Amino acid sequence: MISRSVIKGTAKVAIVASCLFALVAAGTVFSDDPLSSGIRPLAEATIDGLLASMQKRAAAGELTALDRIVLHSGVLGGIAIGQFISPEGAAILRHAVYGDGSELRLDPSYFKRSRFLAAEIERRGPGNHGPVRFRQSEDMRLSLALNPVFIAIAGGHVRVGHPRIQFAAADAQPVLTIIPIGKLRLRMFDNLVGALQRKPFAAFAEWRLE
Asked: Rounded to two decimals, what is the model's pTM?
């Protein structure tokens, strides 16, 4: 029978190991120290390689049960991390994988202060516009939620979103989105979300121009 002291000792080792792993992971994501800078390319390559291999299996209809567990874990992690980098993108990801296909109303707070959207609204004026495509560098936070976007302007009222959000099918041409997590830049395939998506849906944010 294992003694209580052995169990306590093992628990302490596990806690210390977990803390060290967390510190290394945090450094890899956020720090510029030489060790973290050296680990970061390896971490990116490893994660990107895993995602690429799953994308190929998804395209061939060969996702394993383990793949699906990893993907759902990644989606839940993306939803959590997305609260800090693009809450709108996190809401869309959650609704795509776990929603019922109903229209998703997005918080307009960020849309109202987006310089990219403000310029497009002023330049285009009243009417229905879209799809409006843009580079991630023009508005990273918006791109993680909607790209392209549709913009409707009428009577001082603005509606921005997309009438049918459907991530790329698993067997379609690979569609890449760069996901910034601290200093990491991960290459995520929209096709992997498409493999889990339940139903297409519309998503919009609405507000009145001031």
From this structure: 0.78
